[in-house]
């Protein structure tokens, strides 16, 4: 059965326009800042011409875009000057994500992102502004194709076998209390500041000397106290915005698991529906920042095989953004019953692990003191004291956390538990043996004499390799893990 060629909804023009304007906003601002003082008319005409050109291109792009369902594939035609025809076989589709902005809901439209096993920079196809029922139609074609493949390739004896019993639907939703804790403890507001600084770096050359002189005069008149208050207000503004953004992003986060499929639905302004097959999961990660650990909450993420480098697939997939630690074990048993959580027995870090990490931190701290202190000592002794204190706070606490959280232990014949630290974030990995592509033990001559070593586990993450590392562990612990891994490789 073949469908007729279909076009996107006219609202797709707005999507194309939004993405293009987002790409052109910085060059447009630089152009206005550079030209406005010399000629206001040319700056306005230039912006109008750019907007007109982008709109015309997007209308043509909409008119030249179409998609069509066949029995074994979906065909997508696009391109203005270079015509593209994208063939996507149903058996190559790994994931279909539905994104629905709030202004599309009354019209029952959404965006479909189709991800395949190909190694591209993003989803192979993005169908913007299509009917909500299109996802069900696409899944119907996929199921029909898969059933035909099974009929052709599976012998008659297979059908006489007893069908596997399907598991019921397992569900979990985050509470408002958990979502507020998660949003209020996020350092995401710092990203907003970095964006502003990056934008300033791009436009600073276009700013005139008069602008800097006027800013300096205002700075002198206001005084230090008002400037500090202004900076605090700016930080609070970015913090409040980041809290609201996270609440809107993970609004009504709901997780379902049926058989081997995980389905997630969340979002206020942009409702997102996505599914992940269990066979793509390489490891389960429990992540806790220092502040969230004090509040007894954590995030659960998945290291998965993916083809996309963009968006969330560049990082670990968030399968549960926030959960109270008291509920964590029950959650893992419920959604990942193959992980032997009850068999986990973690040994405390060795005393020499603390010694090596803190020793290295002290060395870096002293080097920092010497380099910066030689410069600041000429200004004031108090600057030198401040550098020593700041340097110690910068190097020593993370080193202590690195040692305290350096763990690796075998759970059973199939799973290993690995824990490490990243700045102040505690990362706990549950890794199946089948996901480990390479296991490496590193040991210098000096560590060999002390019977200590490092261990590295390589597993797939996205289209690349994730290296999980734990440093300064007793050699006997690492040898035990190596023997466990070799046993599976040789069997």
TrEMBL record:
Transmembrane residue ranges: 12-35, 41-60, 182-201, 221-247, 354-375, 381-401
InterPro entries (UniProt xref): UCP026631, YdbS-like_PH
Pfam families, sorted: bPH_2 (PF03703)
Keyword tRNA processing attached: no
Domain YdbS-like PH: from-to ranges: 62-133, 250-327
Domain of life: Bacteria
Keywords, sorted A to Z: Membrane, Transmembrane, Transmembrane helix
Keyword Transmembrane: yes
Protein name: Membrane protein
Upper classification of the organism: Bacteria, Bacillati, Bacillota, Bacilli, Lactobacillales
